[in-house]
Design a protein that fits this description.
656 residues; alpha/beta; seven-stranded mixed β-sheet; five-stranded parallel β-sheet; 21 helices; 30 strands; 32% helix; 22% strand; binds 5'-O-[(S)-butoxy(hydroxy)phosphoryl]adenosine
């Protein structure tokens, strides 16, 4: 397992201090400064956040109350009026930043664009006016299914500008998955592109939208706005489909930002859980703006001359918070790259760093592991001396990969911020502040000021140092998710009831196992539920099982993660077949393809294992623990006495 085991990391006690030069110029300059800040925030979180909200953001109208906490429902900056698009763009226009690069974009085939804040303003206003012309009003949900091109960010900011919540669906999801999300969110319009470049091929996004909408598949969608990217031939349905470049002709570039209520919904973003279909995580405006602003500023230690690059896709929360909203709110230059490292161009990331003189680079452990495999000569043959700070996110990073990143990419001079957070938390929760907190390879170190993170048992008792427990947060924070879209009950059940509240104390349950060491450093061990992570993409085993079972050949399916050196985990599906089907190579292929069609290529099982039966308890529950061991090729250890039929296990073992 690339998730570090307790045994391996217990022995990890290397400590890396920022250089004196880095610390002196940093936003937060010493451990003592961090600790003071942390204690101040802890003593009075409301006062802490209110002071920052006042200092750092523009409000059309000030709030009446900082926090209204009716557990588990929080409201921040109650009755404040704010617009995040205004904070990300307009307020910079009256400063010298007006003509600073807001967005640098590099396309996969090598084309590029740079938009200054003034230019971004114009694009966003025009886009917003086109949305309005197509009937989008404040409160209407807009689906965004886009490649990594500037218009993805422009569309998000345009929605925010007019108060239309967006729901971005990652371009790697299938038409079926897109349809589900558009329906759940009741989207009124979809923004897409003719296609996008991905690993030397064109992803036909518009075709997928057509498929999602065919046979009235998403009845709430009235219009589709299509950005031209690849010049693909696409079919345009008259009355429904519109080219962005046509509609923008003659459209006004004046569109004042709508004063939004602090608690108005900014976006819905779907993410997988251990049960049921993906949840629509709801984020609102004021608290999210403040928290992503502050975390970007302090964790990435932004300076006005920096070029900042986060390699995520805008289809994930990392893209929302740390490509678009956090950096732009700070007036930073944010870089967006359409491509992914690929066999034909293994050095492409390093070329981008060299070309633009990137100072801050934020990527995922799975990418780092891929780079290690591609070989040191790629980064070594580029000039990476502009880099000052490195970051990682998405899954635990094994100390070896951390060291490689530190040595080969960071030249042993750049601190690494290993940032733990989730779609649900909106922003980074546990992380080094790079000028202040010495790092240990594999640890996300300590909570951000204002975040009361803890490791507890199922009753909520803190566990002793270096013992495993559940990662929780004990107090609301500004960018926490507000609910599951349309399902308050699921919100309560999923996050607030695993550890029952006591004495008025509520525990936000993250779903991760963790340990805290004697220095108060957090070591995140990975999910404790049936969520698996393939190349940093979060997938619910049950979603994949449902996809498999929807195939006529499949009677039952159980999906588990198998440790994989490169991708973190690989999907292994144990499948039993309906009576008249027999295992075959064709069926193996067909089932994998079926999952791709139902969810997307990111969910393609690495292995299908056909079996006559699945190991179950006497009460009929599939014993995944056993299947996980089997998939990993390990001996099945632990209690198997609840197994209904031992021969099932023996047979599965033989077949392995
Ligand atoms: C899950 C959240 C939020 C950014 C991208 C993923 C895992 C995230 C770390 C880290 C160990 C991490 C956790 C978490 N995770 N960052 N630095 N160290 N694990 O967002 O798809 O909502 O997934 O990713 O398991 O619960 P997400």
């Amino acid at each position: 397992m690339t998730v570090p085991t307790i045994e391996s990391i217990l022995h990890e006690n290397r400590l890396f201090h920022p250089t004196a030069e880095f610390a002196q110029q940093a936003q937060i300059k010493s451990l003592q400064d961090y600790e003071q800040l942390y204690e101040r925030a802890k003593a009075n979180p409301e006062a802490f956040w209110a002071e920052l909200a006042e200092q750092e953001l523009h409000w059309f109208q000030k709030w009446d109350k900082v926090l209204d906490w009716q557990p588990p429902f929080a409201k921040w900056f109650v009755d404040g009026k704010i617009n995040i698009s205004y904070n990300c763009i307009d307020r910079h226009l009256t400063t010298w930043r007006r003509n600073k690069a807001a967005l640098i974009w590099e396309g996969e085939p090598g084309d590029s664009r740079t938009l200054t804040y003034a230019q971004l303003h114009r694009e966003v206003c025009q886009f917003a006016n086109v949305l309005k012309q197509l009937g989008v009003q404040k409160g209407d949900v807009v689906g965004i299914y886009m490649p990594m091109i500037p218009e993805a960010a422009i569309a998000m900011l345009a929605c925010a500008r007019i108060g239309a919540p967006h729901t971005v669906v990652f371009g790697g999801f299938s038409a079926e998955a897109l349809r589900d999300r558009l329906n759940d969110g009741q989207a009124k319009l979809v923004v897409t592109a003719d296609g996008g470049w991905r690993k030397d091929a064109i992803v036909p996004l518009k075709d997928q939208v057509d498929k999602a909408l065919e046979d009235n598949g998403a009845p709430t969608v009235e219009n589709v706005l299509v950005v031209q990217r690849t010049q693909q031939r696409v079919s345009m349905e008259p009355g429904r489909d519109h080219w962005w470049h046509d509609l923008r002709q003659g459209i006004s570039s004046d569109c004042p930002a709508e004063p939004m209520d602090s608690e108005d919904m900014l976006f819905i973003l779907y993410t997988s859980g251990s049960t049921g279909k993906p949840k629509g995580v709801v984020h609102t405006t004021g608290g999210y703006n403040l928290y992503t602003h502050m975390t970007t500023k302090w964790i990435f230690d932004l300076r006005d001359t920096d070029v900042y690059w986060c390699t995520a896709d805008v289809g994930w929360i990392t893209g929302h918070s740390y490509i678009v909203y956090g950096p732009l709110s700070n007036g930073a230059t944010t870089l967006m790259y359409e491509g992914a490292p690929r066999a034909s161009n293994p050095g492409c990331f390093w070329d981008v760093i060299e070309k633009y003189g990137v100072n801050i680079f934020y990527t995922a452990p799975t990418a780092i592991r891929a780079f290690i495999k591609m070989g040191e000569h790629h980064p070594r043959s580029r000039d990476l001396s502009s880099l000052r700070l490195l970051g990682t996110v998405g899954e635990p990073i094994n100390p070896e990969a951390w060291m490689w990143y530190y040595r080969v990419i960071g030249g042993e001079r750049c601190p690494i911020v290993d940032t733990w957070w989730q779609t649900e938390t909106g922003g980074i929760m546990i992380t080094p502040l790079p000028g202040a907190i010495p790092t240990k390879p594999g640890s996300a170190t300590r909570p951000f000021p204002g975040i009361l993170a803890d490791v507890v048992d199922l009753e909520g008792n803190p566990v002793p140092d270096n013992e495993g427990g559940y990662l929780v947060v004990r107090y609301p924070w500004p960018s926490m998710m507000r609910t599951v879209y349309g399902d308050d009950d699921r919100f309560r059940r999923t996050y607030w009831e695993h550890i029952p509240p006591r004495d008025g104390q509520y525990f936000y349950f993250a779903g991760d196992g963790a340990r805290r060491d004697e220095d108060g450093y957090f070591w995140v061990m990975g999910r404790v539920d049936d969520v698996i992570s393939v190349s940093g993409h979060r997938l619910g085993t049950m979603e994949i099982e449902s996809a498999l079972v929807s195939h006529p050949a499949v009677a039952e399916a159980a999906v588990v993660g198998k440790p994989d050196e490169l991708r973190g985990e690989e999907i292994v599906a144990f499948v039993t077949l309906e009576g008249h089907y027999t295992p075959s190579e064709e069926l193996d292929k067909a089932l994998k393809q079926h999952v791709v069609q139902e969810i997307g290529a990111l969910a393609r099982p690495g292995q299908i294992r056909f079996s006559d039966a699945l190991p179950k308890t006497r009460s009929g529950k599939i014993m995944r623990r056993l299947l996980r061991s089997l998939a990993a090729g390990q001996d099945v250890v632990g209690d198997t006495s609840t197994l209904e039929d031992r021969s099932v296990l023996d047979k599965l073992r033989e077949e392995a």
